[in-house]
Amino acid sequence: MGSPERELCPPPSEEDELTLPRASINKMIKELVPSVRIAFESRELILNCCTEFIHLISSEANEVCNQSNKKTINAEHVLTALDRLGFSDYTEEAEAVLKDCKAVAAKRRRQSTRLENLGIPEEELLRQQQELFAKAREEQAKQEQQQWLLLQQQGLVGPEGVPQPYVPPPVAIKPEDDEDDDYS
Protein backbone atom coordinates (compact mmCIF):
# COMPACT_ATOMS: atom_id res chain seq x y z
CA MET A 1 0.00 0.00 0.00
CA GLY A 2 1.14 3.58 -0.69
CA SER A 3 2.03 6.22 1.83
CA PRO A 4 -0.74 8.32 3.40
CA GLU A 5 0.60 11.36 1.54
CA ARG A 6 0.24 9.59 -1.81
CA GLU A 7 -3.35 8.65 -0.96
CA LEU A 8 -4.16 12.29 -0.17
CA CYS A 9 -2.34 13.47 -3.24
CA PRO A 10 -2.29 10.88 -6.02
CA PRO A 11 0.33 11.40 -8.72
CA PRO A 12 -1.00 13.24 -11.77
CA SER A 13 -2.18 11.07 -14.63
CA GLU A 14 -2.75 11.85 -18.30
CA GLU A 15 -6.51 11.72 -17.73
CA ASP A 16 -6.43 14.51 -15.12
CA GLU A 17 -8.49 17.57 -15.80
CA LEU A 18 -6.83 20.95 -16.14
CA THR A 19 -4.89 22.13 -13.10
CA LEU A 20 -3.21 25.33 -12.06
CA PRO A 21 0.42 25.84 -13.06
CA ARG A 22 2.72 24.38 -10.39
CA ALA A 23 5.09 27.32 -10.71
CA SER A 24 2.29 29.75 -9.81
CA ILE A 25 1.26 27.71 -6.78
CA ASN A 26 4.90 27.42 -5.65
CA LYS A 27 5.34 31.18 -6.02
CA MET A 28 2.22 31.90 -3.96
CA ILE A 29 3.33 29.49 -1.24
CA LYS A 30 6.78 31.09 -1.13
CA GLU A 31 5.26 34.58 -0.88
CA LEU A 32 2.84 33.56 1.90
CA VAL A 33 5.30 31.54 4.01
CA PRO A 34 8.82 32.43 2.87
CA SER A 35 10.60 30.95 5.88
CA VAL A 36 8.89 27.54 5.82
CA ARG A 37 9.94 24.56 3.73
CA ILE A 38 7.06 22.69 2.12
CA ALA A 39 7.33 19.03 1.09
CA PHE A 40 6.57 18.04 -2.50
CA GLU A 41 3.52 16.04 -1.43
CA SER A 42 2.21 19.06 0.48
CA ARG A 43 2.65 21.28 -2.56
CA GLU A 44 0.78 18.76 -4.70
CA LEU A 45 -2.00 18.57 -2.11
CA ILE A 46 -2.31 22.36 -2.08
CA LEU A 47 -2.38 22.34 -5.89
CA ASN A 48 -5.17 19.75 -5.93
CA CYS A 49 -7.14 21.64 -3.27
CA CYS A 50 -6.87 24.89 -5.21
CA THR A 51 -7.92 23.19 -8.42
CA GLU A 52 -10.85 21.47 -6.71
CA PHE A 53 -11.93 24.77 -5.12
CA ILE A 54 -11.95 26.48 -8.50
CA HIS A 55 -13.93 23.61 -10.05
CA LEU A 56 -16.44 23.78 -7.19
CA ILE A 57 -16.94 27.55 -7.47
CA SER A 58 -17.10 27.37 -11.28
CA SER A 59 -19.73 24.62 -11.23
CA GLU A 60 -21.88 26.52 -8.75
CA ALA A 61 -21.45 29.78 -10.67
CA ASN A 62 -22.52 27.94 -13.82
CA GLU A 63 -25.63 26.74 -12.05
CA VAL A 64 -26.43 30.29 -10.88
CA CYS A 65 -25.86 31.50 -14.44
CA ASN A 66 -28.22 28.87 -15.86
CA GLN A 67 -30.90 29.75 -13.29
CA SER A 68 -30.61 33.37 -14.41
CA ASN A 69 -31.13 32.23 -18.02
CA LYS A 70 -27.75 33.66 -18.97
CA LYS A 71 -25.12 32.11 -21.20
CA THR A 72 -22.03 33.80 -19.75
CA ILE A 73 -20.84 33.48 -16.18
CA ASN A 74 -20.16 36.93 -14.78
CA ALA A 75 -18.70 38.18 -11.51
CA GLU A 76 -22.09 38.39 -9.80
CA HIS A 77 -22.67 34.69 -10.50
CA VAL A 78 -19.32 33.84 -8.87
CA LEU A 79 -20.09 35.97 -5.80
CA THR A 80 -23.48 34.31 -5.44
CA ALA A 81 -21.80 30.90 -5.78
CA LEU A 82 -19.39 31.78 -2.96
CA ASP A 83 -22.34 32.67 -0.71
CA ARG A 84 -24.29 29.51 -1.61
CA LEU A 85 -21.32 27.26 -0.89
CA GLY A 86 -20.69 28.83 2.52
CA PHE A 87 -17.70 30.94 1.54
CA SER A 88 -19.36 34.27 2.29
CA ASP A 89 -16.23 35.27 4.22
CA TYR A 90 -14.46 35.51 0.85
CA THR A 91 -17.02 37.72 -0.89
CA GLU A 92 -15.73 41.00 0.55
CA GLU A 93 -12.18 40.29 -0.62
CA ALA A 94 -13.47 38.96 -3.96
CA GLU A 95 -15.45 42.18 -4.48
CA ALA A 96 -12.33 44.23 -3.73
CA VAL A 97 -10.35 42.22 -6.31
CA LEU A 98 -13.19 42.66 -8.81
CA LYS A 99 -13.14 46.42 -8.25
CA ASP A 100 -9.36 46.48 -8.81
CA CYS A 101 -9.70 44.40 -11.99
CA LYS A 102 -12.34 46.77 -13.36
CA ALA A 103 -10.11 49.76 -12.58
CA VAL A 104 -7.13 48.15 -14.35
CA ALA A 105 -9.29 47.27 -17.37
CA ALA A 106 -10.64 50.83 -17.56
CA LYS A 107 -7.11 52.22 -17.35
CA ARG A 108 -5.98 49.92 -20.17
CA ARG A 109 -8.88 51.06 -22.34
CA ARG A 110 -7.99 54.69 -21.73
CA GLN A 111 -4.32 54.04 -22.52
CA SER A 112 -5.09 52.10 -25.65
CA THR A 113 -6.67 55.05 -27.44
CA ARG A 114 -3.98 56.58 -29.60
CA LEU A 115 -5.54 60.03 -29.54
CA GLU A 116 -5.09 60.34 -25.79
CA ASN A 117 -1.54 59.00 -25.98
CA LEU A 118 -0.54 61.65 -28.51
CA GLY A 119 -1.66 64.56 -26.37
CA ILE A 120 -2.74 66.47 -29.49
CA PRO A 121 -6.25 67.96 -29.69
CA GLU A 122 -8.60 66.32 -32.18
CA GLU A 123 -8.92 69.55 -34.19
CA GLU A 124 -5.15 69.65 -34.72
CA LEU A 125 -5.13 66.02 -35.80
CA LEU A 126 -7.89 66.73 -38.33
CA ARG A 127 -5.94 69.72 -39.69
CA GLN A 128 -2.81 67.56 -40.05
CA GLN A 129 -4.87 64.90 -41.80
CA GLN A 130 -6.22 67.44 -44.29
CA GLU A 131 -2.65 68.66 -44.98
CA LEU A 132 -1.54 65.10 -45.67
CA PHE A 133 -4.48 64.58 -48.04
CA ALA A 134 -3.64 67.81 -49.89
CA LYS A 135 0.03 66.80 -50.25
CA ALA A 136 -1.02 63.39 -51.54
CA ARG A 137 -3.34 65.00 -54.12
CA GLU A 138 -0.52 67.31 -55.26
CA GLU A 139 1.89 64.40 -55.61
CA GLN A 140 -0.69 62.40 -57.57
CA ALA A 141 -1.30 65.36 -59.91
CA LYS A 142 2.47 65.74 -60.50
CA GLN A 143 2.78 62.06 -61.34
CA GLU A 144 -0.15 62.23 -63.76
CA GLN A 145 1.36 65.34 -65.41
CA GLN A 146 4.73 63.61 -65.84
CA GLN A 147 3.02 60.55 -67.29
CA TRP A 148 1.06 62.79 -69.70
CA LEU A 149 4.21 64.56 -70.90
CA LEU A 150 5.92 61.22 -71.43
CA LEU A 151 3.01 59.98 -73.57
CA GLN A 152 3.14 63.19 -75.63
CA GLN A 153 6.89 62.82 -76.15
CA GLN A 154 6.37 59.27 -77.35
CA GLY A 155 3.75 60.49 -79.79
CA LEU A 156 1.01 58.35 -78.30
CA VAL A 157 -1.13 61.38 -77.43
CA GLY A 158 -1.62 64.58 -79.41
CA PRO A 159 -1.32 68.06 -77.90
CA GLU A 160 -5.07 68.31 -77.34
CA GLY A 161 -5.14 64.93 -75.58
CA VAL A 162 -6.53 63.04 -78.57
CA PRO A 163 -4.99 59.58 -78.79
CA GLN A 164 -2.95 59.05 -81.93
CA PRO A 165 -3.61 55.96 -84.04
CA TYR A 166 -1.18 53.15 -83.44
CA VAL A 167 1.48 52.91 -86.09
CA PRO A 168 3.67 49.84 -85.77
CA PRO A 169 7.41 50.46 -85.92
CA PRO A 170 9.02 49.92 -89.33
CA VAL A 171 10.26 46.41 -89.96
CA ALA A 172 13.65 45.95 -91.52
CA ILE A 173 13.42 43.98 -94.79
CA LYS A 174 15.99 41.27 -95.17
CA PRO A 175 17.46 40.67 -98.59
CA GLU A 176 16.41 37.29 -99.92
CA ASP A 177 19.00 34.75 -100.77
CA ASP A 178 19.05 33.71 -104.38
CA GLU A 179 20.04 30.24 -103.44
CA ASP A 180 17.28 27.76 -103.09
CA ASP A 181 18.00 25.83 -100.01
CA ASP A 182 16.62 22.38 -100.13
CA TYR A 183 16.17 21.07 -96.65
CA SER A 184 14.52 17.82 -97.62
From TrEMBL:
Keywords: Nucleus. GO terms for molecular function: protein heterodimerization activity; RNA polymerase II general transcription initiation factor activity; TBP-class protein binding. Its main location: nucleus. Residues 19-82 form the Transcription factor CBF/NF-Y/archaeal histone domain. It is found in: Nucleus. One of its GO terms (biological process) is negative regulation of transcription by RNA polymerase II. GO terms for cellular component: negative cofactor 2 complex. It comes from the Eukaryota. The keyword DNA damage does not apply. InterPro entries: CBFA_NFYB_domain, Histone-fold, Ncb2. It holds the Pfam family CBFD_NFYB_HMF. SUPFAM superfamilies: Histone-fold (SSF47113). Residues 159-184 are annotated as: Disordered. Coiled coil: none annotated. PANTHER family: PROTEIN DR1. Belongs to the NC2 beta/DR1 family. This is Protein Dr1. It comes from Papilio xuthus (Asian swallowtail butterfly). The gene is LOC106127522.
